[in-house]
Structures are given as C-alpha cells and as structure tokens.
Inverse folding.
C-alpha cells in the first residue's frame, strides 16, 4: 500500500508532463492476474516510456525524490550528454533509499549484449499499445487503475517470454506469470497474431523453451500446434537441453546452465549466425564500446567485464 501510494505520486508527475507510461511485468500483473499485491513478490517497479521521453522522465524521477543507482557506465544523469542516445542504457534504476525502486525502460530489451539480436520495433509496440478509458481505469483492481496505457496482450505475452529467456530460464515466478496470462486469455485471442510478433522479434527459441518449461511445471494449456509452429529445430533444442532443463531445475541439480545463465541466454538466440556475430562483437568490439565504459576503459577492461558477467551469470 505504501509503495502504491508512492507510485501514484510519481506517476502524477509524469502524467502532468504528458509522458505516457506503460507498466511492465509485476507492475501490472499484480492487479490483473493476482488480484492481491501480497501474493506476487516484486523487488522493483518496471516502467516503459517512449525513447524521446527517456531523459526527461529520468530527470522527473530525480525531482520526485528518487536517486539514480550508479552503474558501470553511468554515475549521474549528466553523463547521458556525453554519449549519443543510441548508446544510452536500455534501463536506468532509481530508488528512494527506503525500499522503493523503479527501473525506467526505453526498450523491452535492456541488455546491450542482445539489443542487436532481437528485432523489436518499439515504435510498433507503442502503436499496438492499449489506451484505457477512465471507466476502464476505475474498474481495474489492486492498483492496476493507476495506469493509462498497457502493452497489447500479444506484446505482453511475448515480452514475458523474452524476459524469462533473458534471465536464463531460472526465475521461477516468471513461469507462473506466463501460465496465468495464458489461462486468462480473452476469447478473442488469436494465436496467429502472437506468432507474427514472435517471428518479427526473432524469439522463436525463447518462446518455445519458456512455454515448454511452463507446460512441464504447471501444465500450461499451450496448444500443441503453436509449439510445433515455433519449434526452433533439433539443434536449438539440443544446445539448451545440454545447459538446462525443467527436470534439472526442479531437482535443483547442478548444471552448466544453472552455474552460467549467460550461456543459456546465448543458446536461446534463434540463428547460429546471430549467435556467433554477437560473440565476435563482444570479443572484438568497436573502440566506441569499450572506451565509453565508465570504470573499465580499454580492451583489457572490456574483456574483464565480459568475464565478470559470465561468471556472475547476469
């Protein structure tokens, strides 16, 4: 309740500046699916704004009493001016020092490593978004009425699957989110439209494996025909299975993929060519990539950073 009250004050500031805000993941699922903010745990609130409103939104969060959480590349908002906007991070994190945290997104893929692997047209995502009437806002339960714009149902499911994949298929509550979303699909739902987005974003392997895990864990009612259509092929299934599987997760058995989730993320890339191009770009980056790193400038520092990420698994 305290968090919801704090969020309302911040959203009012953004709305007064005519900035549209879309809630992501738990920020909207608590109200739409769980009906009770105490059931679905949530560490922070994720919100999406249009790319052109990214910096102004960040400044408004600071003026609302939040503090920027420093990252390796950005210690203050003033540093954004030192970089072209194409090199800005996909998300910035803020908190108030008392447990209230917001992650501000300008893209649904925030990892620089995978930003060129998945083909998300954010302009199209915003065009498909759903704007709620005043009556619809008032009818939403458990805080969902705070929001004026939502992702389209198709983008929502695609993003939930991609988000789970970008965490190496290892955050268990993500599978429950997806299961509940599918079990509550409207009668007008068209799996064909969803498949179009999956193909556009090039997330066939990610969606296939997430939904396969959901069926194994929760008996999620995903049509077999849908799984057949998005099946990424035996090679993709093999490389993921060698790293991680529902059985290994449930038995809590050690595996290479559990120890190094980053390897799972890479294995979920649809095309082998894209996978190797990503590895090559990280191994032999353009000078602009490693010289703009705040704390580890230079190619050696860049490689050390990659080693740290793989070791941590994030």
């Amino acid at each position: 309740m305290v968090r919801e009250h704090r969020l309302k004050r911040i959203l009012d500031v953004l709305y007064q500046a005519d900035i549209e805000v879309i809630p992501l993941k738990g920020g909207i699922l608590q109200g739409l699916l769980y009906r009770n903010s105490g059931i679905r745990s949530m560490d922070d609130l994720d919100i999406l704004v249009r790319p052109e409103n990214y910096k102004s939104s960040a400044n408004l969060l600071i003026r609302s009493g939040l503090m920027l959480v420093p990252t390796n590349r950005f210690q203050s908002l003033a540093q954004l001016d030192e970089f072209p906007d194409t090199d800005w991070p996909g998300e910035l994190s803020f908190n108030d020092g008392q447990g209230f945290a917001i992650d501000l997104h300008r893209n649904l893929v925030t990892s620089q490593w995978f930003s060129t692997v998945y083909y998300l047209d954010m302009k199209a995502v915003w065009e498909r978004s759903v704007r709620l009437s005043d009556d619809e806002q008032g009818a939403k339960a458990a805080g969902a009425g705070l929001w004026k714009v939502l992702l389209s149902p198709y983008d929502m499911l695609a993003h939930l699957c991609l988000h789970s994949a970008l965490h190496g298929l290892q955050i268990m509550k993500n599978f429950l989110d997806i299961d509940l979303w599918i079990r509550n699909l409207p009668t007008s739902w068209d799996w064909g439209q969803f498949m179009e987005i999956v193909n556009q974003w090039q997330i066939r392997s990610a969606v296939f494996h997430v939904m396969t895990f959901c069926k194994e864990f929760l008996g999620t009612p995903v049509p077999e025909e849908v799984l057949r259509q998005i099946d990424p092929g035996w090679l993709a299934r093999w490389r993921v299975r060698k790293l991680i599987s529902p059985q290994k997760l449930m038995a809590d058995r050690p595996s290479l993929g559990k120890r190094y989730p980053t390897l799972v993320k890479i294995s979920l890339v649809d095309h082998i060519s894209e996978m190797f191009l990503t590895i090559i770009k990280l191994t032999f980056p353009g000078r602009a990539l490693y010289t703009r790193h705040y704390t580890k400038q230079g190619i050696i520092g860049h490689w050390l950073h990659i080693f740290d990420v793989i070791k941590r698994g994030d």
Q: What stands out?
A: Residues 1-151 form a domain with the Beta Polymerase; domain 2 fold (CATH 3.30.460). DSSP finds 17 helices and seven strands in the chain. The mean pLDDT is 85. The chain has two domains: 1-151, 152-283.
